[in-house]
């Protein structure tokens, strides 16, 4: 292992692609039925890393959860939404709306192509998934294969995996 060179934070920053500090507008992570506030802060960091925005519901505890979890120096791109109405508006405006869910006609994460149009990644409740009334608003479903005993990953991990894939980073 003597051939490994560790890079400093300054070196890593200078090697990154230059981009505006806000989201690029082509990807939106949408944990619209969150269960745990800590996942929102983690997902917000992933959004920053891939140039995405975060859409969250107007729930009383969400602003505090985001403030606690937001360790970014720059302002983050957050949309405050009413889930079902907002998803319908996104579809009407030409966004591709993908759910992360177990479904018969899902696309495996490994087969998911990079996003070529504005795309919303819908993340459901960790215990109940995406509500039935929202499933009709999806254009497609992405499945994250697992071999363990758990039925799913937490929202932050699942969202991060899908965002990196759609951004073309994996």
UniProtKB/TrEMBL annotation:
Residues 38-164 form the tRNA/rRNA methyltransferase SpoU type domain. Pfam families: SpoU_methylase. Signal peptide: none annotated. SUPFAM superfamilies: alpha/beta knot (SSF75217). Gene3D superfamilies: 3.40.1280.10. It comes from the Bacteria. Keywords: Methyltransferase, Transferase. Coiled coil: none annotated. GO terms for biological process: methylation; RNA processing. One of its GO terms (molecular function) is RNA methyltransferase activity. InterPro entries: Alpha/beta_knot_MTases (IPR029028), rRNA_Methyltransferase (IPR051259), SpoU_MeTrfase (IPR001537), tRNA_m1G_MTases_N (IPR029026). PANTHER family: RRNA METHYLTRANSFERASE 3, RRNA METHYLTRANSFERASE 3, MITOCHONDRIAL. This is tRNA G18 (Ribose-2'-O)-methylase SpoU. It comes from Nonomuraea soli.
């Amino acid at each position: 292992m003597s051939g490994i060179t560790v890079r400093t934070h300054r070196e890593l920053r200078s090697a990154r692609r230059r981009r505006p500090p806000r989201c690029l507008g082509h990807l939106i992570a949408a944990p619209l039925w969150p269960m745990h506030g800590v996942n929102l802060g983690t997902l917000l960091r992933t959004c920053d890393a891939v140039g995405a925005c975060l859409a969250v519901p107007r729930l009383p505890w969400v602003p505090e959860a985001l403030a606690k979890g937001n360790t970014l120096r720059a302002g983050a791109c957050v949309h405050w939404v009413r889930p079902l109405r907002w998803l319908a508006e996104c579809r009407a405006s030409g966004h591709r709306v993908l759910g992360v869910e177990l479904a018969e006609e899902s696309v495996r994460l490994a087969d998911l192509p990079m996003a070529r149009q504005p795309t919303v990644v819908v993340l459901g409740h960790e215990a109940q998934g995406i509500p039935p009334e929202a499933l009709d608003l999806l254009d497609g479903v992405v499945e994250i294969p697992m071999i363990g005993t758990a039925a799913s990953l937490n929202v932050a991990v699942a969202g991060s995996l899908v965002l990196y894939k759609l951004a073309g980073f994996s």
